[in-house]
Design brief:
single chain, mainly alpha, 12 helices, about 240 residues, about 0% strand
Length: about 240
Amino acid sequence: MSSEINDLERLIALRDSGEIDEAEYNALKEQIFTRETPEKTNSEERKQLVGVTVLVTLLVCGAAFGIYKAVSGSSDDRTPQEQVFIDRFAMSGAATDFGGLGEIGFESSDARCVGSGLVDRVGMDSLNVAGIGWPDSDYLPPQFLVPFFESMSDCVDLKELAAIGMAEGAEMDVELFACALEDLSEMELIQLLSATGDELTVDDDMANQILFPVIGSLFDCAAELPGIDLDELMDFDW
């Protein structure tokens, strides 16, 4: 029965991921659970069973490969110039452990995904002029800030990375910043991360609409989370 259960689990995963529809799922499930006893199983039925197993395996492998291509960026659709940029972009990041992100699981495949997003959003002409590589010392040309963080958002959990970075900068608990950013939309987070110092003045719309509400959420979260020093939060230089 263990082989039937394994095949059923594969079918359920394929149905839930959308690789097969409900009708295909039911048909394949029926084939799995209408097997006769070994004594009555003839050669033709064994062939059908093998066919079902092969079909499930191919569908699973195909789905996994499709997900990999979607996340990592397939070289099949890239010009040589684009692929060279993506490779160099990832290599320049690896040289600095992606600005410390490697410590929390950021990998070269993630960097290639980000590089692919930049190519699609900015274009090779602009990238060649700027000679852009992985951001060093938190610097990116201003015109690339939004495309970079949009590409990051496509490839990784940007809120998680932002919370970790903010917590390290403030030397506070990461749970505090994860809580404060929870209600922020992805676009609002990208706007906040892309803002320059001049754009975050007291009278600036972005500060009023995004930054100050986040700071307010910090205090709300600090009051709810255990072990957070409110005095330390009050003394922080905002």
